[in-house]
Design brief:
By secondary structure, the protein is an all-alpha fold. The chain has five helices and no strands. It starts with a helix and ends with a helix.
Length: 171
């Protein structure tokens, strides 16, 4: 049995990449607006869980994790870390522990904002590198193979990319 890999790529992988990328828009909201930030993260978390339900129904049961399963876990973990970071920085913002001068009436939140952006950059880099770890090696192998695995029924002007080898969904 061979599964159609384009279905998984466009319906699962792209959706997870887009929802996780959308979660990073939370860093454009001020740290003081914790309600708006958490609402956005929780809505994206719900969308990711719905995707997990779809993946669970579509893939066969097996004793190992598919690359899609790992991507779902990575996306959920990233959303959890963004949520935890939002709560921690909101608490720091309320406590005003980041101020250099405790007697100053104009306490700036530059340290909190810098920590927020630093976390955004680090978590985004980790997410991208993890995706490269998951899918980079199989994509590289596909690029360097000299075999023409184009199905005979596919017209020559159509682009052929056997994504099923990348996402390990053949059974």
């Amino acid at each position: 049995v061979r599964r159609v890999a384009n279905y998984y790529f466009y319906k699962v992988v792209m959706l997870l990449w887009l929802t996780t990328a959308l979660a990073y828009s939370v860093f454009f909201l001020p740290v003081s607006e914790i309600g708006d930030r958490l609402e956005l993260i929780f809505n994206i978390f719900i969308a990711t869980m719905a995707t997990l339900y779809i993946v669970d129904e579509a893939l066969p049961r097996c004793a190992f994790l598919h690359a899609l399963d790992k991507l779902v876990m990575l996306s959920v973990g990233t959303l959890f870390l963004i949520c935890a970071e939002t709560c921690i920085l909101s608490h720091l913002h309320k406590m005003r522990d980041v101020c250099d001068d405790a007697n100053s009436n104009e306490c700036t939140d530059s340290a909190v904002e810098q920590a927020d952006w630093l976390f955004a950059a680090c978590s985004m880099a980790f997410y991208i590198l993890s995706n490269l770890r998951l899918f980079g090696q199989p994509l590289y192998r596909l690029a360097v193979t000299n075999e023409d695995a184009r199905p005979p029924w596919l017209p020559a002007h159509k682009v052929y990319s056997p994504l099923s080898k990348v996402f390990a969904i053949d059974i």
